[in-house]
Amino acid sequence: MRGNMFDRAALPRVAPFLAYLSFIFIADMLGRLGVAAQDLRWLYPVKIGVVLGMLLYWRRSYTELVWTPLGARAILGALAGGVVVFLLWINLDASWMMIGIADGFDPRTDGRIEWSLVVLRIAGAALVVPVMEELFWRSFLLRWIDKPDFLRADPRLASAKAFAISVLLFGFEHNLWLAGMVAGAAYSLLYMRSQSLWSPILAHGVTNGVLGLWIISGGHWIYW
């Protein structure tokens, strides 16, 4: 293992991501034990609550989240990037572009939508997940691949190797692996160009937020 991966700087950026992934394993195990899919839906707000709590606990460690104005051009670029990723996400869904079959997230009970679940799902996906994932994938991993002392690494100077590895892994984190790679590449480029983690966070939030609204409007539950 290179350097001190789980040192004081890495842990706050890695632990929330690992906690998030652990709930996927928990849900799978509970499903195998016979817990109904409808009951497992309530794991999502618990998962988001745990991740949010960890982010708040370590909030003083995230120096890359100290706010600095992005500028109109960077904001527009992030907004446009988020929408483009959304459009590609819902179209890059051929069978060969998928890993397995997604369980999805159906917020309906007896045909009626549980709006509390919808609000929690969209809020978690658009506000919490982008911060957690961008801290791990872009701020940490993209830079750490090149330099274990990643906080001193300039995102503009990320190597092709670091870019490719982080994008590939981000893609295979998702059921729609090709769409995931496209998203990972877009968010990485926004980070490298702007040097501000808020740029990919904004784009990521737009993608997830618009995706959530699209899912609700057409009942495309499998995309959740």
Automatic annotation (TrEMBL):
GO terms for molecular function: endopeptidase activity. Keywords: Hydrolase, Membrane, Protease, Transmembrane, Transmembrane helix. InterPro entries: Prenyl_protease-related, Rce1/LyrA-like_dom. This is CAAX prenyl protease-related protein. The keyword Repeat does not apply. The chain crosses the membrane at residues 14-35, 42-58, 70-92, 113-132, 162-189, 201-223. Residues 117-209 form the CAAX prenyl protease 2/Lysostaphin resistance protein A-like domain. One of its GO terms (biological process) is proteolysis. It comes from the Bacteria.
